[in-house]
Design a protein that fits this description.
By secondary structure, the chain is an alpha/beta fold. Helix content is 50%, strand content 10%. It is globular.
């Protein structure tokens, strides 16, 4: 299988505890017929929604994407037919490899970012809500605020154009951040390390943090950005890392830069953290909703290698559950996600909309 990554420009993430034994996505679909059938059918059905967004995005630019999206569909469906008939016809088969083939089909057909318009609209709406949310959070006592920040990450993470349960909610009339936050599953969550996390941050502040963020819109703006802002308030140096290239409605590095610049225009804490280098952004080198930490950008690897990091944050279902759920690091790792797909839920013996907060101290 040809890769979307150049080995010359991508290296292993320095904080991996076992680079030689690392597997980003251990769900072997070639070996499990039922799982394979589920995911191949899901990817086929998801392409309809992707096509609608691609056509709307192109129309917003005054273009017609009818022919390019037809080419992309034909190429991707041919790939799905191949691996349905022979699961190993294109190499190892997992969710990450399917995502990479979908992105390749889009790029080769000339479709750069089918969710650009959706991301821009959702992000604009979220930024209008952000000042009031930050004011609400800042008025809370510290212990209460720390819990509210985690709940906010969960609520934001529901906004996912690649998740079946989210798509159902959108079709039923949309999703509101405040409503989702108020209706989160009660504790104990499916994976519930909240008390352990609160004990950790009460006892010792983190010094250097790398946070792999997920979706545009409320996910990054109302969920992860307030959480990272709090880490900065407590003295941490934070590297925010997002996709280099578009994939679904994941926020890209360039979009993240614009979000931070706009936030800095009204929030002194973010403005100061950016100004003094405490908060910076580096592109991950990634081009998929899942992440292969054996192939991150040279820039990210070099920044991490400058001095030891003591916390990695993996946010979102793709980065922290579908990939890297059991990955070990040389530092603490915090995984935060809402489960928004029935197949993922079955894999974890969970239910859709269950919450995962997994905190693993360094070994």
């Amino acid at each position: 299988m040809t890769t979307m990554y150049s080995t010359a420009s991508h290296v292993a993430f320095p904080a991996l505890a076992d680079p030689a034994g690392y597997r980003p996505c251990p769900w072997d679909l070639a070996a499990h017929a039922d799982d394979r059938a589920y995911w191949l059918d899901l990817f086929r059905k998801q392409f309809d929604a992707l096509e609608r967004d691609a056509l709307q995005e192109a129309a917003d630019r005054g273009c017609d994407a009818t022919h390019p999206i037809a080419l992309a569909r034909a190429a991707f469906m041919a790939y799905l037919d191949d691996v349905s008939a022979d699961p190993l016809s294109h190499g190892p088969l997992d969710i990450l490899s399917i995502c990479e083939h979908r992105e390749r089909a889009l790029r080769e057909a000339g479709i750069a970012d089918p969710y650009r318009l959706m991301k821009a609209q959702e992000t604009e709406r979220a930024i209008r809500v952000l000042p009031g949310l930050l004011e609400e959070l800042d008025a809370m006592p510290v212990p209460e605020r720390r819990v509210a920040l985690i709940r906010g990450v969960f609520a934001g993470n529901i906004f996912d154009a690649g998740a079946t349960e989210t798509i159902k909610l959108i079709q039923q009339g949309g999703i509101d951040f405040a409503t989702v936050r108020a209706q989160l599953r009660p504790r104990p969550w499916h994976a519930d390390a909240l008390d352990r996390w609160l004990d950790q941050v009460r006892g010792q502040a983190y010094k250097r943090v790398v946070a792999f963020v997920d979706n545009a819109g409320p996910d990054i703006v109302l969920g992860m950005l307030p959480f990272v802002r709090e880490l900065c308030r407590e003295g941490a140096e934070v590297i925010l890392t997002a996709n280099t290239s578009p994939s679904l409605n994941d926020v890209t590095h360039d979009e993240l830069l614009a979000i931070l610049a706009e936030t800095a225009s009204f929030d002194p804490l973010i403005r100061e953290a950016i100004g003094n280098g405490q908060l910076r952004t580096i592109a991950s080198g990634n081009a998929a909703p899942l992440i292969d930490l054996s192939r991150v950008s040279n820039e990210l690897a070099q920044a991490v290698a400058e001095s030891p990091i003591d916390l990695v944050i993996l946010e979102g279902m793709g980065r922290s559950i579908e990939s890297n759920y059991d990955t070990r690091f040389t530092c603490d790792v915090l995984r935060l996600a809402m489960i928004k797909d029935a197949g993922v839920a079955r894999r974890l013996n969970a239910q859709p909309f269950d919450l995962v907060m997994r905190f693993d101290p360094a070994r």
